[in-house]
Amino acid sequence: MADRDGFIWYDGKLVPWRDATTHVLTHSLHYGLAVFEGVRAYKTVSGTAIFRLKEHTDRLFNSAHIYRMPMPYDKATLIEAHKEVVRSNKLESCYLRPIAFYGSEKMGVSPRGAATHVSIAAWPWGAYLGEEGMEKGIRVKTSSYSRHHVNVNMARAKFAGTYANSILANMEATEDGYDEALLLDVDGFVAEGAGENLFVIKDGVIYEPEIASALMGITRNTVITLAAELGYQVIAKRLTRDDIYIADEAFFTGTAAEVTPIRELDNRTIGAGSRGPITQKIQSLFFDVVNGKVPAHKDWLSYI
Ligand code: PMP
Fold this sequence. Notes:
The structure is a single chain. This protein has helices at residues 27-31, 53-66, 75-88, 131-136, 163-175, 218-229, 241-245, 277-290; strands at residues 7-10, 13-16, 34-36, 39-44, 47-51, 94-102, 116-123, 138-146, 180-184, 190-193, 197-202, 205-209, 234-237, 249-254, 258-265, 268-269, 301-303. It has 304 residues and is an alpha+beta fold. The chain has 2 domains: 7-123, D-amino Acid Aminotransferase, Chain A, domain 1 (2-Layer Sandwich); 131-290, D-amino Acid Aminotransferase, subunit A, domain 2 (D-amino Acid Aminotransferase, Chain A, domain 2). Strands 8, 9, 10, 11, 12, 13, 14, 15 and 16 form a 9-stranded mixed β-sheet that branches. A hairpin with a 5-residue loop joins β9 and β10. It is globular and about 55 Å long. The two termini are 24 Å apart. 4'-deoxy-4'-aminopyridoxal-5'-phosphate binds at residues 38, 158, 166, 192, 195-197, 214-215, 217-220, 253-255. This is Branched-chain-amino-acid aminotransferase. Keywords: Amino-acid biosynthesis, Aminotransferase, Branched-chain amino acid biosynthesis, Pyridoxal phosphate, Transferase. Acts on leucine, isoleucine and valine. It holds the Pfam family Aminotran_4. Belongs to the class-IV pyridoxal-phosphate-dependent aminotransferase family.
């Protein structure tokens, strides 16, 4: 990823891609505290636009607030910086990765005395769980690793350290031949995917796990809004893994994963074992919205 052309916004200016480096004694590299976002820009019918940039920026600042990380730039500056990155790299659609991290000014667990640095990179990134998965659904395995207890890591923050848990789960599942991992919370109830929120559908009603130890996904929020507009009820409740075994349909949501149907969990077929009809309706509306084809949701698009 480091050796390519293009520009990365780094501490207030655009720098050539290869020069966007940091020292090996970067505090965040050692202690895992960096807050970040995953954001997508789409080539809409009216030009390239970043999807729900305000909400991603709000979540980035909330993550920093939770971890008491001072942010050296205001939201308006970072919102403009995202657009600048897409423009300067001449990208029509892309994934964006803003990150705020502590630098190499000091070592030791406390970050006091270290400066916050911010960078934003962007690059083309297709379907995270594969094009085929988008159509036919993916195979998921319940992880032997639990999602963090709410008093171990702060689930409302999207921060680097939490992803060590996601990495363990994702590697375990993918090395066993599955596409993604599903994590349960410490009480054994369904939490989320390694990088996605989950929805299941039973008898025409959409359910999601209570968002305790899971990230408050922005795609999740988009899907809840769209599902309501399509006339579906969305109920948050404690879900067990076997609630999913006997569901009619299931899907993951995430900025990277978008709306990805799940066809199998732990070698049990879910419903008909393919993308279900309600999932398909929501997925199709989701792509219409991000591609700027739904006037009512143009306010979610920040044109560059
Ligand atoms: N849960 C986790 C652990 C994630 O990493 C992500 C991706 N950011 C999500 C859920 C989905 O969040 P969003 O829809 O905001 O991308």
